[in-house]
Design a protein that fits this description.
Layout (H helix, E strand, L loop, with lengths): L25 E7 L1 H7 L3 E6 L5 H11 L4 H4 L3 E4 L2 E2 L11 E5 L6
Parallel strand pairs: 1-5
Antiparallel strand pairs: 1-2, 3-4, 3-5
Length: 106
């Protein structure tokens, strides 16, 4: 598989302006639900990120790639491998992130 653009190291929550390619990347599976799926126009994807990337890094990358989705992404809860994640949590190789916007119902 050819190298795909990835994030570069940067402070938490700061999107990169220059994607990089290289061997120091790892796959992360993403699933989007409800308004996040509608805002991003897809229900899932796999991104490559550098080792040490955080949940905030991944969300910032998504917001930078799809600016119209940023208001929804900013309000999403994130599950990392099925457990609630904090923005500073490091995303390990092969992890799965679920982005869940707030929703009401009963």
């Amino acid at each position: 598989m050819p190298d795909q653009p990835t994030m570069t190291d940067r402070p938490i929550g700061q999107p990169t302006s220059e994607p990089t390619t290289g061997q120091d990347t790892q796959p992360v599976g993403l699933r989007y639900f409800a308004a996040a799926r509608a805002a991003l126009g897809r229900s899932e994807e796999t991104l490559t990120v550098p080792p040490g990337a955080t949940v905030a890094d991944v969300v910032a990358r998504l917001a930078a790639a799809t600016p119209a989705a940023e208001p929804v992404l900013a309000r999403c809860s994130v599950l990392l491998d099925g457990r609630r994640a904090a923005p500073a949590d490091v995303v390990p190789a092969g992890a799965s992130l679920d982005l869940l916007p707030p929703f009401a119902g009963g």
